[in-house]
């Protein structure tokens, strides 16, 4: 395809997306109104509308008022989110979360299962969930899966997932023969970030930084509404950050082990006998000055890494998720104040709102966006 043909195809894609977005954001809009709002010709809009109607992404919902000249009432168009469904899966070390939504993110099914990290079992659980949901499986257009590890997103290969004992496993290739629709694989923290952006605390922001604090620590960057992957899909590995003190003590990162920063603020840092992060944070008295050394250290380390990330990325919003974050409600105000005192660059820090379901929702969102970019949605 030559450059001229490429340019024409790009313009067609842009026009199609603009028309669909215009319908999505309206309560009912006519073809003429779309043409006027977007500055497109009526013939271009009509052709795109016919395509979208044929794919059931939009539907005619009734008729508007007549024109100023008393002409025929115009047919109104509405987005049809029920036209397609997707399945999202968040694969953990011992648990699997499965969800199903329509194109608008309405949650139609959700369930958590115990798991032994077996792909055959994963396939069976997905089929079981689809059947149990009693939804029309013919409307499913994609399956998205989040995996705790290093994922080559473009190929669906899991390069390394220590919690699952998976190495260089082409999960996409293993899964797709068992389903009648494409399968998309991503990192679990990336998926959780997308989930919060789509349906959670980051819903109003296209530029956010997501930090997951659980057994380990990870992060994800969303800029301009899209994930930032880095050179080889390893961006956001903040667990490996080092301080001056780490270097002085010669506490350096070792492959296959927790990173030095990870050791300071993950769930592992709170383990002291039978005490959990929730037990430790219960001692927080509204200010770190009166808190235990463990809480003080956690607060200081987290404040610094957020400050440095804000300086580097300039996100509108920082969202903190993961299991440890569920115990942090009492300190989020002080955390905002501390970061504001450390940098002149403005941001807002919030806790995630979707809990353990964020990854499954984000896996669905990733699948939808991949299909949209490929013009299969």
Walk me through what this model shows.
Transcriptional repressor of xylose-utilizing enzymes. Keywords: Carbohydrate metabolism, Kinase, Transferase, Xylose metabolism. The chain contains twelve helices and 15 strands. It has helices at residues 3-24, 31-38, 42-54, 119-133, 171-175, 188-199, 244-249, 260-265, 277-281, 293-313, 332-342, 358-373, and strands at 58-63, 75-79, 85-91, 95-102, 107-114, 140-147, 150-152, 157-161, 166-170, 183-187, 208-213, 217-223, 226-227, 317-321, 348-351. Strand 11 and strand 12 (217-223) form a beta hairpin. The protein starts with a helix and ends with a helix. The model has no long low-confidence stretch (mean pLDDT 90).
How would you sum up this structure in a few lines?
The chain is an alpha/beta fold and 377 residues long. The chain has helices at 3-24, 31-38, 42-54, 119-133, 171-175, 188-199, 244-249, 260-265, 277-281, 293-313, 332-342, 358-373, and strands spanning 58-63, 75-79, 85-91, 95-102, 107-114, 140-147, 150-152, 157-161, 166-170, 183-187, 208-213, 217-223, 226-227, 317-321, 348-351.
